[in-house]
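Listing S7. Sequence submitted for prediction.
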Amino acid sequence: MWKERALALRPCLLEFLIESAQLLEVSPIVKYTALSFFADRFYPRFSSSRFKEGGDIANWLLQPLRESNLQLFALVSLWISSKIHSSRPLSINCFKSLGDKVIKEQHFTNRDFLEAEVVLMQVLNFEIGAVDIAFTFLEELFHQLREVAKIGDLVNFEACMDIMDILYEKGEISTEHCSSHSLAASTLVASYVITVPKQRWEFPILPWVRFVTGCKEDDILEIVREILKHVFDPS
């Protein structure tokens, strides 16, 4: 029962996190690190058929797991990511103020945010490294492409980020099912196909990303097809 509800809630929660990141005007790396914490590591634990509410971490925020509580954890993921990546991270009051506006079902105090931070860290086993983030690899690939080929100037990086947002919201492709490198490579190839005029497709983008990342061509193509399906046939 909970697994079905968790799967149904996932797109709404990720849309909530992405919209919250926009309202807070955080940098892309803060947003995508938060998505990695929440979507790739925190949430899958609670959408598993083996999950029992509370589990080995006894806390009222997990018993029962309400949508409002999960929205709180989404904001806390952004807060932790902000503290990792920002020289002047956003204060707890910023997140508390935003939570008061966007979380409708429940009112959370500063103390609740602090408690949710500890719980989320426990679920992540206090492993909050941000090295294996698909967005980081995507940024590196994008800059490498611009260095080796003029066609790189025509690839729209905003489109790359829009694609990553779509993939997270749809939930069909994540680092749970494919590596961060292949996800980054596929996103760049898809953005190339979408934003570069067809008459300018002289650069061998697929062999190049395969060579640079070491990812299998078939794996990249499979993800690219999924991306293009979601972009051109969102239904």
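Caption to Listing S7: primary sequence and predicted structure tokens for the chain studied. The chain is about 65% helix and 0% strand. The two ends are 26 Å apart (CA to CA).
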